[in-house]
Task: structure prediction
Amino acid sequence: MNITDKSGLILEGGGMRGVFTIGVLDNFMDRGIRFPYVIGVSAGACNALSYMSNQRGRAKYADIDLLKEYDYVGVKYLLTQGCIMDFKLLFQTFPEKIYPYDYDALAQSESRFEMVTTSCLTGEPCYFDEKHDPKRIIDIVRASSSLPFVSPIAYVDGVPMLDGGISDSIPIERAFSLGYDNNVVVLTRNRGYRKPEKPSRVPFMFYRKYPDIKRAIKERNMKYNRTMELVERLEEEGKVLVIRPENPIQVGRIERDVEKLLAFYNEGYEIASRIDFCSAEGLFSKK
Result:
């Protein structure tokens, strides 16, 4: 594939299934492959941050090594933090002390980078390109990763937000709208996957102040499936390159089995290694 100034890298979320994406991104970093535009959703946004700062292995450490050491997924965190994961560890202790994030490298990156959240006020996606304010960067990526029902509402600039995947799981249309028409999409599900067509149910006690986020959650499955149909059609037409798992997926959204996670990471790395990239401008590497 030729990488041009109109190339984008689009990263789906998927919780712990994002280790597949981490394998892909580590392979890209090993080969010096960069894109002029990167957009990530939820876990995809988390993993994209380490790609943008060129901290190879950092995201893998967070999702595999850190999980093994701290076991940061579980119901106990719902009771203590109102979240299925230890967000204090992931978005405070980890980037500040355990494996400090290189904010300077992000700020100096020439690539445009966006993270996707969903506004609770409108139910619509918000696209943020913050690269300079560390606190705001963490606020955005935390909001992008705040799964409904099992995470508290997060705030960006005082606006209540939830997971970006609610409103735009695979922001391919966003990339095209900005003029990036030569895109690589990294998915965390097998080809042909679709969500159940029936509207998602939102228990009455959730989000009573925010009717539009309730609507967005109910409509999420249908919107996701329409986007997947678009991605697969563009793939068949040769207008987008899709990298996705090939083996039956053994990893769940809230996976705690480190061996399964490592195997899924390795699959992502191996699949990415088969793809040749080049650039007429000489700005990107070729396998």
DSSP finds ten helices and eight strands in the chain. The first strand starts at residue 7 and ends at 11. Confidence is low (pLDDT under 50) at residues 280-287. The radius of gyration is 18 Å.
